[in-house]
Specification:
Blueprint lengths: L35 H14 L41 E2 H18 L7 H18 L6 E5 L2 H5 L14 E4 L6 H17 L5 H20 L4 H4 L1 H4 L10 H15 L2 H10 L18 H13 L7 H14 L9 E2 L5 E2 L6 H20 L4 E3 L2 E3 L1 H16 L23 H4 L16 H5 L29 H4 L3 H17 L1
Antiparallel strand pairs: 1-2, 2-3, 4-5, 6-7
Helix pairs in contact: 1-18, 2-3, 2-5, 2-18, 3-5, 5-6, 5-9, 6-9, 9-10, 9-11, 11-12, 11-13, 13-14, 13-18
Length: 496
Amino acid sequence: MAPNPRRLPSCFPLLSASLFLLLLLPRHSAASPHNYHDALRKSLLFFEGQRSGRLPPDQRLRWRKDSALHDGASAGVDLTGGYYDAGDNVKFGFPMAFTTTLLAWSVIDFGRIMGSELGNAIKAVKWGTDYLLKATAHDGIVYVQVGDPLSDHNCWERPEDMDTLRTAYKIDANHPGSDVAGETAAALAAASIVFRSRDPAYSRLLLSRAIKVFEFADRHRGAYSSSLEHAVCPFYCDVNGYQDELLWGAAWLHKASRRRVYREYIVRNEVVLRAGDSINEFGWDNKHAGINVLLSKEVLMGRSNDLRSFQMNADGFICSLLPGISNPQVQYSPGGLIFKAGGSNMQHVTSFSFLLLAYSNYLSHANHAVTCPQTTASPALLKRLAKRQVDYILGDNPLGMSYMVGYGRRYPERIHHRGSSLPSVHAHPARIACKEGSRYYLSPNPNPNVLVGAVVGGPNSSDAFPDSRPFFQESEPTTYINAPLVGLLAYFAAHS
């Protein structure tokens, strides 16, 4: 099942300030320096394993085949394509849009140093935006999910075999969803920047659609989980509210279009949409830290003094991440991993680390540092913090385990993922029915198909990891764990 980020883990110890510097150094040395470029290649390969629809001729993960070729047919629309978000076979639009936004941001900030993997990164973005364009093809309607999660989670079957309900869920004027619509607008706007010089016509289509979807999100305000609670909860319920997605969408539209109207919208709505709330959060449900870091670039470059409060919030977010600071929301495991209350912890690790790196670059260009209580955080310090988290993921941790499947000598082999854990169509052409897959789910054997590049939810608060499918919070990979990691790996591959 898809991870529920609101489930609470066991308690874990706070790290004292005396361990601050130790966290910046590899505490568990790897046998050899990490090959960040190889990890980047594999992190992008993972997205091919998550593809839904008709696979292209250049598909590299060959054990996957075409799936869900009739999505949308029950509603009279074409909703084929897109990504399965995690180890199940539902297409959840909210995390898919966030994944696309972060992939696009990775290309915008780090694409120039991706080398031979830039093309694959752009393909990963486009696989997401092609689907989002289908989902927003009709004015005043956004299709936000395909697949009934209850029937899907009642089965353990390959996406190529699935016979569960493929219900298409939508939001409209009478059933609003400003959160998922705002995130979709952000994804389309961010991607329009990626394609601006590469495919101008496609870029213009993405931007014009982003404008329409944002206007719809702003005009018909409300949380999509109020309109579609039975379908999206408890899987991807909007717990945080829709206000942050409106600011997030406007921020990306401002960056993509350079239209004053969007900056004025942000300034005018800063208090109304609670811009200063929960500045220590960033993920598919909460965009506040991302908004603050993204808009801070405008301030640091001297372009928008009226956005200075966002830079102050970004500085506050950075200070809250410094090891040794007694912050109740962001803490560290004994082995040095960022840890937050909730499931699938690696989503916080990669998204926070991405913001650390992005902000460090913005600060460097402005010759600026972050002033925190009792210390000053330089851009170089932020980069070291981000690198420490990446290295932990790749194997510098108490277990000596890489949490990226297929990278390193030891990695998770029993991940919570249907397609990976069941025999491939090539190996087992006959259909495997809903309940027939249970024996593979419960098997102690490694998954027969290696989902190369997948980063799982990760160890618990004491750095322990059960390599077991039923422990889905630790063993399930998601697209929104990998998306921020793409930019991080690109940077460290170029600067290692």
